[in-house]
Structure formats: C-alpha cells, structure tokens
Amino acid sequence: DEHAGRATLSVSSFVMRDDPAMDPLALVCIVRDVTEQRQAQLDIHRHTERQVALYEINLATTSTLELRVVLNVLLEKLTTLVPETATTIMLLEKKAGQLVKVAARGIDEEAWKAHSTARGEGTHPALPVKGAIRISNIQVSRNGLDLDYFRRSGFVSYLGVPLIAQDKVPGILSFYCRQERYFTDAEINSLRTLVH
Predict the structure, then answer these.
(1) Coil, helix or strand for 141?
(2) Which residues contact 178 (CB under 8 A, 6 or more apart)?
C-alpha cells in the first residue's frame, strides 16, 4: 500500500474569548491520530469492492456458458481490484497437459499469445503446489517461470495465483507490474477468494 507507515491525523482548533471584541484568551488545538480508523475504512471499502466483484463474477459464470465472456468479466473486475497491473489467464489443456494462453488485460494480448517459449507453457511452479508465486523483481529472478516476454515489455513484479476447482488447478491467473511491488498476503488471500 502506498500509504503504509504514514499516520493519519485529525486536527481541530478553536479560539476561546470572553468577549468577541476582545483578544483571544487561548487557542486550543487538538490533534488526534486516526490512522486505525482510516485503515478500518479502507479495509471496509476494499472488502466491499471484493464482494461486488465476487457477485458480478458469479453472475457472469451462472448467466452464460461462454468462457470468453466469463474471462472478460473476471479480467475487468480484477483490473479495478488490482490497478496498475497487466493480467493474464492461462488454462491447462487436459490432453497435452500444457498451459494455454487464453486472455489478457493491460498488454497486447495477440503479441503475448504469439510469443512462444523454449520450454512450453506447461511448466509453472504454482501447478503442483497449488500456491501463489510472488516475485518482487522479475528482471533478476531465475525461478523456473518463463517471464521473457514481460521482462522485455518492462514489467518488474509478478504474482501468479492458481485457479483451483474441485481441488485441481485448471489454470493460472497472473499479475504483472511495471514498478517493483510486493503483493501482501492479504491481497493474495482476497484474490484466491475471487478465483476459487
């Protein structure tokens, strides 16, 4: 969060006088630390946004069987929940056991789909462990992910969240940032809630 470590203060002041025509007797200034209140308000706002997104995603998945429509709604909602990121979805093709690039936001989707990898898309560390993968700086990371396209496109940070259905991982939802970013456990948990 860009405001982490900052205090939020409330300042109130008033002048005490015996007579409005007289000089002030005292100036009273009250400073209160309302950081916790502000954080609670932000948490409630984020929670409400997640609930609305979850409702709209659920509505999209139950109103149509068209995968592309559902993915577009999911990507649209994720764009508002995780701003300033590019988002991609890869789904596991059952027969070949390979991840297939199916949808993206915030990047040239056709160029991303056209980019081939030396190892194939089927290898992703989140598949076997069913856990999120976060990398603060993909420019220097060598962790087994194929991030060449995103490195060349100027992205710096990465978060990969497995899509889990019936205890299986049918795909990976990935987020890329152009600035170094550490995705918090709270952010990851809220994204897991949306995609499980």
Answers:
(1) coil
(2) 84, 154, 155, 156
